[in-house]
Write a structure and sequence with these properties.
Elements: E1 3-4, E2 11-12, H1 21-48, E3 50-56, E4 64-66, E5 69-71, H2 73-88, E6 95-101, H3 108-111, E7 117-123, E8 132-134, E9 139-148, E10 163-167, H4 172-182, E11 188-192, H5 195-203, E12 208-213, H6 214-223, E13 230-232, E14 238-248, H7 252-267, H8 270-279
Helix pairs in contact: 2-7
């Protein structure tokens, strides 16, 4: 009995099935449509001399809004990508349009093709690769938790009975759910709208922690009024994972162009300047 592929629902005959011309034509038509979408993406950018980036709000220092404008290391990376693409597509600078998205709906602008690239601390996971494309990695981070120093919470095993704040849509949500099972469903989980709001909620809640990427936690702690009042765990809920720029699933040519731009930044030390601006 025939089955269908995961991404595009192409027909896959069983070994004992007769191969039908109708099935071949059906598959060919879908492939043709998807290849056309891939060409249309980068062609539109070239013809319009503009590119649309989406970014997550409140993900300091990767992407956030400052004085009404997007800023952060991922924002700077995307600006450089746009500069490189402009040169590759004829030399004229690309006009950049920005779409601010919430963590809970972080990929909607990509899935609806309103955005060409998402510029944030987006973890490249096998689940997300089912519906998105990713650039080569530009950063790695583990998932840890921050807590009140006076609570002396150094280990994941000590979280039983505590309130856990985690950003909606983050890969940490699944990790917290699995931890809750391990700890006998003793956690009180609350979804936050952003990393910034998650930390603020943790600050005013007794017996609580906020779970997020460790680099994000260190940045938020350093920027807080009383950084000495908080501890970041050495225990990780998730080991180091790659951050990358995200693209719509059909944007194969665009992914190649983005990767070429990032690789050129690596070779010319342009990326080092961006990194040093935010972390040194």
């Amino acid at each position: 009995m025939s089955t269908n592929t995961t991404n595009y629902q192409l027909i896959k005959p069983d070994r004992t099935d007769n191969v039908l011309v109708e099935d071949i034509n059906y598959n060919t038509e879908i492939i043709d449509q998807e290849l056309k979408k891939n060409e249309t993406n980068i062609t539109n950018i070239k013809n319009n001399h503009s590119i649309t980036f989406s970014y997550l709000e409140g993900e300091f220092p990767f992407s956030y809004t400052l004085a009404g404008k997007p800023t952060g290391i991922a924002i700077d990376l995307c600006k450089s990508v746009a500069e490189h693409l402009g040169k590759e597509l004829g030399g004229k600078p690309l006009e950049i349009h920005w779409i601010k998205v919430s963590p809970a709906a972080r990929f909607q602008s990509l899935l609806t093709h309103k955005s060409d690239v998402e510029c944030s601390n987006i973890t490249n996971t096998s689940d997300r690769r089912q519906f998105l494309l990713f650039s080569i990695p530009y950063f790695y981070a583990s998932t840890a938790f921050i807590s009140h120093k006076e609570d002396h919470l150094g280990s994941i095993k000590m979280l039983s009975g505590h309130t856990i704040f985690v950003t909606s849509g983050d890969i940490a949500v699944e990790a917290v759910a699995k931890l809750n099972v391990r700890l006998g469903y003793s956690l009180f989980t609350h979804l936050s709208q952003s990393a910034v709001s998650g930390l603020e909620e943790m600050k005013v809640t007794n017996n609580s922690v906020f779970v997020a990427d460790d680099v994000l936690l260190y940045s938020l702690k350093a920027a807080s009024e009383k950084p000495g009042c908080y501890n970041i765990s050495q225990d990780n809920l998730i080991a180091a994972q790659p951050f990358a720029l995200a693209l719509p699933r059909q944007s194969i040519k665009m992914k190649k162009a983005v990767n070429n731009a990032i690789m050129e930044m690596f070779f010319t030390n342009e990326f080092d300047k961006i990194y040093n601006k935010w972390f040194l």
